[in-house]
Design goal:
about 375 residues; alpha/beta; Rossmann fold; 10-stranded mixed β-sheet; two-stranded antiparallel ribbon; 10 helices; S-adenosylmethionine-dependent methyltransferase activity; Methyltransf_11
Length: about 375
């Protein structure tokens, strides 16, 4: 599912089942266009070939894999998340002179993995999240020649397009697409690299989104992703829970559920990636107050988007949350810490040249012999 914007009618359209990008000449931004699920608009039916259609992991109707329904798993409100991304683009535009040190640290750490690869990646796809930071910090890593920037938010894509690129990235041919990670408008086996920096944890079907990323990769293509882990904002969770129990007599979800570290490797294996790798970093960001933390989350587009969220937060609960946060976690200098757990995932699409594990029982030396050898030397 995704939103598409028509500049002639100045309207947003809700759409299903992508069937390829269409160029908008005025802005240079492409929109993933698909069959419209509405009675107000009519479009000619088009026959989709396997080389032109995009793919999805949703259920199929009448055995047609290109006529898909949205994922049955409904955790996040994707429509609300797109609005939050629009607001984040406006906030980033108003603070264009200052960069987010936390976002830059995550993007830099993720892109550093390209320097560890001797392989080049001529065509790369960058999914929604920290698009602006990835584009600015790429610095010719990976020998990328063609870069596709995609986000669900038109305003975020427009902001990324209007920003000045780094001098080392001026020779990269960059395209901009408005699309959804849950239904990638990308041909199968068409890109060499997929990058997602702090974006995939908002998808309703994370395994399905990762499977689509793998299908979009060419053989021996690389998947790099950074998502927030389950220990993220643990201080805010505690403060919200205590405040709501005191003021309202019950709790409602205020912080989104996130994957645990033990799940990251299983996600890569389930998606079919070869040579999976996962590592975790924890960043502690200090703020002057809880209100500054909330404002930072808004700027990142990381505020609550749960379908089962409570739409009302009373003034008493909000003030109590800030007071409890300060009393429980405030440092000696008066600042409050916020923990962000970031999980970095690496996976490759299968290729015969990749190293593979030996068959069980094929070893010629046992660990007992090694232990005896080193034990005798000591």
């Amino acid at each position: 599912m995704a939103w598409g914007f028509d500049q002639q009618t100045d309207r947003w359209w809700w759409r299903h089942a992508y069937s390829g990008p269409v160029s908008r000449k005025k802005t240079g931004i492409k929109f993933a266009v698909h069959r419209l699920n509405t009675t107000a608009l009519e479009v000619p039916s088009a026959r989709l070939s396997s080389s032109q259609a995009s793919f999805s992991t949703g259920d199929c109707d009448n055995g047609n894999p290109f006529e898909t329904n949205p994922s049955k798993v409904k955790i996040f409100d994707r429509h609300l998340k797109r609005k939050q991304r629009d607001r984040a683009a406006w906030l980033l535009h108003s603070n264009s002179n200052s960069n987010d040190s936390f976002i830059d640290a995550v993007a830099e750490n993720l892109l550093d993995r390209l320097e560890d690869c001797k392989k080049t990646f001529p065509t790369a796809l960058c999914l929604g999240g920290s698009l602006h930071a990835v584009r600015r910090l790429l610095r010719d890593r990976g020998a990328i020649e063609k870069l596709i920037m995609m986000d669900t938010s038109y305003d975020m894509v427009k902001l990324c397009k209007s920003s000045q690129p780094d001098s080392s990235n001026e020779n990269i041919e960059t395209s901009y697409v408005v699309g959804d990670e849950e239904f990638l408008p990308i041909k199968e086996s068409s890109v060499d690299l997929v990058i997602s920096c702090l974006g995939l944890h908002w998808t309703n079907d994370l395994p399905g989104a990762m499977i689509q990323c793998k299908l979009a990769l060419k053989p021996d293509g690389l998947f790099l992703a950074a998502i927030l882990g389950g220990e993220t904002l643990k201080e805010l969770r505690i403060a919200c829970t205590v405040a709501q129990m005191e003021r309202e007599g019950g709790i409602s979800p205020r912080v989104s559920p996130l994957a645990q570290v033990r799940d990251a490797g299983n996600l890569l294996t389930r998606a079919g990636f070869a040579l999976p790798g996962v590592d975790v970093d924890e960043y502690v960001v200090k703020y002057k107050s809880a209100l500054d933390l909330i404002e930072h989350l808004r700027t990142m587009g990381e505020t609550n988007a749960l379908l089962q969220r409570s739409n009302i937060l009373t003034r008493e609960s909000a003030l109590a949350t800030a007071a409890i946060y300060d009393s429980l976690f405030a440092a000696e200098d008066g600042t409050i810490p916020a923990t962000f757990q970031v999980m970095y995932m690496t996976g490759w699409r299968e290729h015969p040249s990749q190293q593979k594990a030996k068959c069980r029982g094929s070893a010629t030396i046992s660990f007992q012999d090694i232990q005896k050898q080193f034990g005798s030397e000591s």
